[in-house]
Structure formats: structure tokens, C-alpha cells
Amino acid sequence: MNRSEVVPRLAPRSASDRLGRRSPGGLVGMTQVVNDVVGADTALLRTPIPAPRGIRSAARFAPADVPLPQLVASIPTIPSVSTVPVSPATLVRRPSSGLALALDVLISLALAATAVALGIASVTVAAVAAAGWPLLLVATGRYRRPALGQGRLVRPGLVLRTGGRAAVVALAVSPMLWTTHLIAFATLVAACAVASAVPAFVGVRRRGLRLVLAGRPRDVREALESMSPGTGHEVVAACLTRTSKESLGDLPTYVGFESSSSVAHHHGADALVVLPGAGLEPVEVRRLHWSLAGVGTELYLGTGLLDVEPQRTRVVSSGGLDVLHVTQPALDGPRRLVKDVVERSVALVALVVALPVLAALCLAIRRETPGPAIFRQQRIGRDGVPFTMLKLRSMGIEAEEEKSGLSNEGDGVLFKIRLDPRITPLGQKLRKFSLDELPQLWNVVRGDMSLVGPRPALPGEVARYDVDPRRRLVVKPGVTGLWQVSGRSDLTWAESVRLDLKYVDNWSLRLDLTILARTVQAVLGHRGAY
Asked: What one-character DSSP code corresponds to residue 329?
């Protein structure tokens, strides 16, 4: 039997079965007493691999490649507190954080010894700093398991903040105590922070989280397809609501959520992700959380939200109702005014600096082909208002007339051709380095465009827009944006729309700065530039 095959689901659960009572179905009958999950000192919470609602069949918790008759014959008598047999030979162990702790201890000892040798600190101060620095990192969570969605700069930032705060406190207290020891201590701790941040930064990407996905087969497949390979996360198993005819490849699959904690333990998973549509009741989620805590696995619940940044959400409780609040996107207000003023000022300065380059490129374009060097084209701006966008001409003057005789290689409403015969040799170089977009700085100065924003659309494209793409028109189009730094013309129409909508709904000044920084890398890499 292939590992991707799913173990057949047994008898459906009744209402009493959901509450943890006796389950009549399954190959091995057993009882889960409700009192086992009430007190803090119960056997459930002490059991290494608890199952909160009882096991109706040990077969559903085994990997799918184990033959069912062989599995049934090997099942021992299971006590009332449900556990899943796990073979120590196949159990995947999570890497320990002891290596990072040992490295930080070595760093603190080495810097302390250096400070003593150079006469910067006394032996006592150096010893306190060497012993205190790892303890500070332990207290602030430096060696905890990375969380799902944690950025690659979180760990180095935590190390630097810890050292900076300790140094600031020591410097603030030193004048009151009239001693130079605290100054030496602050200097040594700051040096430890910088030295420890380097391996913390490098080590963040060594290993992603091991995940178990729980939900409907279709949702699990979509989650596997949408997961970015750049995160490094590894899906090690899936718990499905029902059997599925479509294969999930070599991914071990299980039916039912009663085994989730045992599956997570068996595969050494760091987190269990319950996808939207799983149909778990609130009581079941709570018991699942308890069982996962017993095996050291984190629980994450899918919200069903699409492209919503965490800073726009918060959990609120009112009148006994726990809900997730999603704030409105910042489409107007002071921050938008700051963006507009800053971008126009920066664009004006950049345009003045680039004037000699623009003049030289215009002359080169005129010498290569007849016609104006600046190409003017009508685009649709904010709120559907048309404007004239400027670009350096990279095609012949009859390019628009020749367009009707070409076949579109793009999907959706975009017209794209990888090897467009209308592009001139000089135009290819201009597009490769995005130099043809330099005149758009004048559009930014005029207020028609922003430095960062959605892709400027043609009137014909907007006429074919559905509901979602029209959301792009609530802000100004940009010279660059998520669409450019993520692949430009290599993107499909759906991917381009999704990136633009993600930018519109989650806009912030910090996001603009990030996109501008990534634009330099995208231009130098020439990805999607055609």
C-alpha cells in the first residue's frame, strides 16, 4: 500500500462520542473518561502522548503504508487513557537548542577573557558578564522554538535588544553608584550582543518548522500548493476529515483528528495547523490544545483570511464571544499624506539627478529609430481617473498598429510576449535595467503615480476587470511594487492581482521601504524584464 493512501475511516462519531464517552466503533474498543481531562493532576496531562477524545481505532494513527491485517494483529490491549504506540526507531527528534546556548556561552567567555587581558574590565565584572549574558538570553526566549510566521530578523533583533537594554540600564545606574564597573559591564554586554547576533542571523534559515496539516483533503492540497518554498517549512503529515481519492504524494495521511497529537509526536512536528473548514467544535479545539501541550507541539488555527498581515489583526473578547478583529486598510489619513509628500520630493530630486542620463538615452533612441524618444500612453490612475504615463520608447513608432498581428502569450487581461519582435535592440537593454521607466518620475512629481503602488493599468484592461482587480484602483499606481519585485512579467494574471491587492490592503510606510530596497535587487537580477 502506498504511503499516500489514507486509512479508511471507521464508524462516524455520535454526539456522545464527541464528548469523550464510550466509542462503539473501531477495531479495539476503549473508554475515555470525561474526568480525565478536568483536573490538573489527571493521568491525561501526565501522559506523554495524550489523546483527548479517545481512540476508536489504533489503525487510523499508523502510517498508511502498514498493512491493515498486520497492524491489527500487533495492537496490544490499550488502557483507558488513550495513547498511540510510537516506535523509538521511527520517532523523529526535534533538534535541541543546546548548541546555540553553548555557542553563546563560548562567545561570552571569550569576550570576557579578552576584556580582562586588555584591562577593559576586572575579573569580577568579566565573570558576571560572562555568566549573566546567557541567562539574559534564556530569560528573553532566545532559545525557544521558532514560531510559525516568524521573520528571519526576529532572533537577531531579540539578541540585540536584550544586549542594548542591559547596557542602557547599566549606564543609567552607573552615575548613581559612582563606579566605572557598570560602564565596563555595559560595554562587555553590548559586545556580547553584537557577537551573538551574527550566528543568530545565520542560523535562522538552517531549519524550518515541521508541520502537520489538519483539514479537508481539498484544503490540505491547496495549502501544500500555496506554501512558499522559501520559508523552509516541511509538512511531515496530514490529518484529514475523510478519505480522499486524490493522492498527496508521499505525505503520510491519517483520517480523523483524535490522533493529531500522536501524529505530531510520531513525526517530530513543531506545530499542528488546523485549516479552515476542518469543522472542529470549540470544545474539541480546547482538548486538542491540551493534548498538543503534552507533546510539546504548538497549535495554529487557520482564520480563512486571505493576505492579511498579522499587525492588522487582534483577538478580542466581549460578552463571552472570542473573535478576531481585522482593522481597515489605511487608504487615507496622515500616513498617506506623508507618503505623498515624501515620494514627490524624492522623485523630484531623482529626476534632476537623472536628467543627464535621460538626455543621453533620448539621443540614442532618436539615432536608432525615427520618432519621439518619449512614449506617451494613457493609463488608469486612482479612482479610475485616466492620466498620461511617460516612458522611454523601446519599440518602433508603429508598435501599436503591429500589436493586432501578434498572439498573446499571457493569461488573463495582460498582453505579454517573451520575445516581442517590436522591441528594438536598445529597447531590450532599456527594459532589462528598467531604464525605460525613468520618465515616470515626472508622473510621480505631478501626483499621477506613486513610487510604490499597484501596476498602472491600460483602459482596455480595466474594462475587463472583475470585482477583485478593481480594488487596485483605490490607490495610485506605482513605478514599482510587489508585482515588480516578485517577478514582473513572469507572474500570471492571478498572481499579479493578488500581489497588488495584498499591497493595497496591508500598506504601510515600512512596506514601501521594503519594496524599494527589493526593487534594486529585482532590477539588477533582470527577472521578468521583457
From this structure: P
Nearest alpha carbon to residue 217 among 5, 488, 477? 5
Which DSSP state fits 434?
T
To the nearest 10 degrees (0 to 180), the angle between helices 123-139 and 154-177 is 140
Q: Measure the CA–CA gap between 261 and 212, rounded to whole angstroms.
A: 10
- Rounded Cα distance, 512 and 482, in Å: 9
**Using CA atoms, how far apart are residues 317 and 263, in angstroms rounded to an integer?**
32
- pTM value > 0.85: no
Angle at 378 between CA 374 and CA 381, to 5 degrees: 120
Kindly report the number of other CB atoms within 10 A of residue 152's CB atom: 14
| AA letter at 320 | G
Per-residue b or e along 347-377, where b marks 16 or more CB atoms closer than 10 Å to that residue's CB: beeebeeeeeebeebbeebeeebeeebebee
In whole angstroms, give the CA distance from residue 62 to residue 59.
Answer: 5
In this prediction, residue 339 carries a pLDDT of 94
Residue 325: CB atoms within 10 A of its CB come to 10
Other Cβ atoms less than 10 A from the Cβ of 94: the count is 14
The arrangement of secondary structure in 209-306, i.e. its CATH architecture, is: 3-Layer(aba) Sandwich (3.40)
Over residues 369-425, the pLDDT tens digits come to 888 999 999 999 999 999 999 999 988 887 777 777 676 666 667 777 777 778 888
CA nearest neighbour of 485 among 439, 530, 516: 516
CA distance linking residue 408 with residue 297, whole number of Å: 49
